[in-house]
Design a protein that fits this description.
single chain; 568 residues; alpha/beta; ABC transporter transmembrane region fold; Rossmann fold; five-stranded parallel sheet; 18 helices; 9 strands; 64% helix; 9% strand; elongated
């Protein structure tokens, strides 16, 4: 499955080839590093020194160096230089590999981010925003660096282990067989037994971290309510429990890794001890076999971290297998983009809902054959009890929900996902809880990097925000806090109005804009709309329970009397 992940990686074919090639090249360079130490080892272990090896003797005679110690220093210097060059090359390969992996991560996190976004409001409302955020940020990163990268490392270590065993087999087949007998069962057992436990621990860890993100977000977002209503202890207990689960999962993973690591070390020590004991028992003072034991010990010590890495990386693959499940599930879920035809809608006459039917599933009907018409320039109020579908009506008008039957018509043109962007250019929307991002006042009014000064000034004036800008230490450049934590509820509503005016909205939808405000602030908002917007030929559709607010409208639609509303 990890090879399939690499095959499907969103990078060019040369980059995929490099990733595979880097694993092989890394193994070859590590093997070369082992091989260049062998001549030095022979010089140190062979009684005959240079004369004991025909290749070293030929080099010694060719160079004309007569001092053995000086020749040994030259060999050491050459070995050191080659090892430095090898490590520099490995460093360069690893850096370039990480650049490719970061490109893969960037693609996956952007792709999942836009995939979730394009699946629309129903999907967002039916999902946990915390889980979606966790998937986009943490899961995508873990998929690349905790799943794909370990697969590449494991491939390189498998190749290196094979090269070492083949080299030992070339020198002495029996020692190679002994190494296989010692190491192969460890890899197989870890795959069959430990791997499954790592996979379960990975899934549990992911669920616990999702829960932690949710709990911390809720605590900081709803701080005042949590403190006043004594919810902190309950959420704190959930946070503590989540920490325990994460710690337990981490402990289990580290315990399994430690068990494997210690088992390998013990087996290696037993292996080397057995070979050395056999050497002394059978060979006595045979210096040739002494060299063989030295080479074997060196190869085994180099094989030790490779085998340990294979098992650890295999564990990482199983531990992070859940990330592949999430990525693959979302890759096949559709909704990668909303095809916009670029149609520019015109609003000169009316918005019409024609025979609209909509529900949230079996047994949850909202509208059945609902029809209504709102003409351009009208100020229409909507009244109804909570849960009767008033906000759902707005979502249908905005094209964020699509009717199951019937149509939303703008001047006779059906509203679809293909022309929705054109319609949104004409819309302003002020909700009960106006969206305020953690930015400056001007950033919350204009989506442009550099707002148009005159239009911004006019928007602030229309929304009666001059007093606020005069009071803020840096004016419109002042940070107003996450969710507008540094401003009042009425000022948030005014920002929503300023935002609608700045974009040149022809239709303003207001969903309970004063429900959480005191009577004085509500009156100020009504006065602002009356003086500044009601004479702008703007179509205003207002949901409210406030009779004083609704009295400013040309007509009122009562949901309790409207035919087609069935959400009771």
């Amino acid at each position: 499955m990890s090879l399939e992940a690499l095959k499907n990686a969103p990078v060019s074919k040369p980059s995929k080839i490099f990733l595979l090639f880097s694993a092989a090249l890394t193994a070859l360079l590590e093997m070369a590093g082992l091989a260049i130490i062998v001549p030095l080892l022979l010089l140190l272990l062979e009684d005959e020194g240079i004369t004991g090896n025909k290749y070293l003797q030929a080099i010694y005679e060719t160079t004309g160096i007569e001092n053995y110690g000086f020749f040994l220093l030259i060999v050491i210097a050459i070995v050191l230089l080659l090892l430095i060059l090898k490590n520099i090359t490995l460093h360069k390969i690893n850096n370039y590999k990480n650049k490719i992996l970061l490109r893969i991560y960037s693609h996956y996190t952007h792709n999942l981010f836009f995939r979730y976004y394009c699946r629309g409001l129903p999907f967002i409302k039916n999902s946990s925003p915390t889980s979606l955020s966790h998937d986009v940020n943490a899961v995508c990163f873990q998929y690349v660096f905790g799943y794909i990268n370990p697969a590449l490392i494991m491939a390189g270590d498998l190749l290196l282990s094979a090269l070492i065993i083949i080299s030992i087999a070339y020198i002495n087949i029996y020692i190679a067989v002994i190494q296989l007998v010692i190491f192969a069962p460890l890899i197989i057992v870890s795959h069959l037994k430990i791997g499954m436990q790592m996979q379960k621990a990975g899934k549990a860890d992911n669920e616990a971290k999702r829960s932690q993100w949710r709990v911390t977000t809720e605590i900081f977002r709803g701080y005042a309510d949590i403190v006043v209503n004594n919810y902190f202890q309950r959420l704190s207990n959930a946070f503590t429990q989540g920490t325990k689960v994460i710690s337990m999962c981490k402990m289990q993973v580290e315990r399994l890794k430690s068990m494997v690591s210690k088992s390998i070390e013990i087996n290696v020590i037993l292996l080397i001890t057995g070979v050395v004991a056999g050497y002394y028992f059978f060979a006595g003072e045979d210096s040739g076999l002494r060299s063989l034991v030295g080479i074997f010990a060196l190869a085994t010590l180099r094989l030790l971290p490779a085998v340990r890495s294979i098992i650890v990386q295999r564990g990482n693959l199983r531990n992070n297998l859940y990330t592949a499940d999430i990525i693959n599930k979302q890759a096949g879920s559709g909704g990668t983009s909303i095809t916009d035809t670029g149609t520019e809608l015109r609003f000169n006459h009316s918005i019409e809902l024609k025979n609209i039917s909509f529900d949230f599933g079996p047994g949850l009907p909202i509208f059945k054959n609902l029809s209504l018409r709102i003409n351009r320039g009208e100020r229409v109020g909507i009244r109804g009890s909570s849960g009767s579908g008033k906000s759902t009506l707005f979502y249908l008008m905005m094209g964020l929900y699509m009717p199951h039957e019937g149509s939303v018509l703008i001047d006779g043109t059906e509203l679809t996902p293909g022309n929705r962007d054109g319609w949104h250019k004409l819309l302003g929307y002020v909700s009960q809880d106006v969206f305020i991002m953690d930015g400056t006042l001007e950033q919350n009014i204009s989506p442009l990097e550099v707002p148009e000064p005159e239009l911004l000034k006019k928007s602030l004036d229309v929304a009666a925000l001059k007093d606020l800008t005069d009071r803020l230490p840096e004016g419109v450049k002042t940070m107003i806090g996450d969710s507008g934590s540094r401003i009042s509820g009425g000022e948030k509503q005014r920002i929503g109005i300023a935002r609608a005016y700045y974009k040149g909205a022809e239709v303003l939808l207001m969903d309970e804009p004063t429900s959480s405000l005191d009577a004085g602030t509500e009156e100020e908002i009504i006065e602002t709309l009356e003086k500044r917007l009601f004479d702008e030929n703007m179509t205003i559709i207002l949901i409210s329970h406030s009779e004083s607010f609704l009295s400013k409208c040309d007509r009122i639609i009562d949901f309790e009397k409207l035919e087609g509303v069935v959400a009771w």
